[in-house]
Specification:
The complex is a heterodimer of chains A (287) and B (73). Chain A is built from 10 helices and 9 strands. Chain A is α/β, with parallel strands linked by helices. In chain A, the strands form 2 sheets. In chain A, strands 1-5-4-2-3 form a 5-stranded parallel β-sheet. In chain A, helix 4 crosses helix 9. Chain B is an alpha+beta fold. Chain B has a 4-stranded antiparallel β-sheet. Chain B is elongated, with a radius of gyration of 13 Å. The chains are: A alpha/beta (287), B alpha+beta (73). At the A-B interface, helix 4, helix 5 and helix 7 of A face strand 1, strand 2, strand 3, strand 4 and helix 1 of B.
């Protein structure tokens, strides 16, 4: 696939059709709209609900290690399983799931390029049958937070311009014109962006069919905003799922060593007392 | 079963660009409305015809979009 730095993290819809039911492969659908799976899904695929299975909604956190191990075990996944994740909205929450699996050290987890949309548009087989799963006993490694940014690090990055901050939300959210994607509930007290952040909406990284743009197109997209592998990068959005998508692009398709997802994102920053905020339209790189 | 009659189109609702994806699964038509930027799902509906499924999605999306406040910046 293209000349990505880590092409092994992507599989095509053709590959999933041919190998999705192989003994050591588990296909998982993770959607923004959790009803999509019930409508019809890839034969053999199971589903994870991001709202209940991939979030600790009391602590507003990712799931703790023991819950992660339980989810993997009940999903029939062992540390040696090749996990293929796909979802709606060009893999928004599929990327969120991969980010969490990498935090807990799962070696072989890949994204189906193009996600649910490409599978549907190609007229491939769907089923409403829920796959039977033989549970495994999964043991995760300790969480690796080198790919996760917390508030103090983001504050330092903004204050000292020590890292490239990438705001992947829509231009209207970045400018402060709207407080959430149009039609969705507002989750913050004010609009705008973190001082110093560049606006590179996540959707610019994908083609019309949902697949990722080529390595060279991606390099040009981020390079035009001064974002390259020479500096650490922190991506954020509203709750951390769109920025997981951008994290995936920068980490695996472009091969940046130091890129983190700030899952506190605008829901955290936009509600902080006394935090600086910039407002207004997108400016040119270097401005 | 397979998706048939897959179509996509764009339209404006309450001043916002919306993307409609419609297809048939068996005898049922399914429609999904997303806002174009950033691409978040607004409505998922079904109907016995394409027109019915799309109309339901348009009505629901319009309802949600009409509540969105635009701030001066």
């Amino acid at each position: 696939m293209s000349n990505y730095t880590h092409p092994e993290v992507l599989v095509s819809t053709e590959w999933v059709e041919a190998h999705g039911n192989d003994a050591n492969v588990r296909v998982v659908e993770v959607d923004v709209d959790t009803k999509a799976y019930e409508e019809g899904h890839i034969p053999g695929a199971i589903a994870w609900d991001w709202q209940t299975q991939l979030c600790d909604s009391v602590r507003r956190d990712i799931i703790p290690k023991d819950q992660f191990e339980e989810l993997m075990s009940q999903s029939g996944i062992s540390p040696a399983t090749t996990v293929i994740i796909y979802g709606d909205n060009n893999n928004w929450f599929a990327a969120w799931a991969i980010w969490q699996m990498k935090i807990y050290g799962h070696k072989d987890v890949r994204l189906m390029n193009g996600g649910r949309k490409k599978w549907l548009s190609e007229g491939r087989e769907l089923t409403t049958d829920v796959a039977a799963v033989k549970p495994e006993a999964y043991q995760a490694v300790a969480a690796d937070y080198s790919i996760r940014a917390f508030l103090p690090e983001v504050q330092a990055a903004s204050r000292e311009r020590a890292a490239s901050l990438v705001d992947v939300r829509s231009p209207g959210e970045y400018s402060g014109e709207i407080l959430a994607p149009a039609g969705l509930p507002e989750t913050c007290q004010r609009g705008g962006h973190i001082p110093g952040a560049r606006s590179i909406p996540w959707g610019k990284a994908v083609n019309d069919d949902g697949t990722f743009q080529s390595h060279d197109e991606l390099e040009r997209l981020y390079g035009a905003e001064g974002v390259d592998a020479s500096r650490p990068v922190i991506a954020y959005c509203r709750i951390g799922e769109r920025s997981s998508h951008t994290w995936f692009v920068l980490k695996y398709l472009l091969g940046f060593e130091n890129v983190r997802n700030y899952d506190g994102s605008w829901t955290e920053w936009g509600n902080l007392v006394g935090a600086p905020v910039e407002r207004g339209a997108v400016s040119q790189a270097g401005a | 079963m397979r998706v048939e009659e897959f179509t996509e189109r764009s339209l404006q609702l309450s001043g916002w660009d919306v993307h409609l994806t419609t297809y048939r699964l068996g005898e049922i038509y399914h429609c999904k409305a997303d806002n174009v930027s950033p691409g978040a799902a607004l409505a998922r509906t079904t109907g016995e015809s394409r027109e019915v499924a799309e109309q339901k999605a348009i009505e629901r999306a319009e309802q949600l979009l009409s509540r969105t406040r635009r701030n001066r910046v």
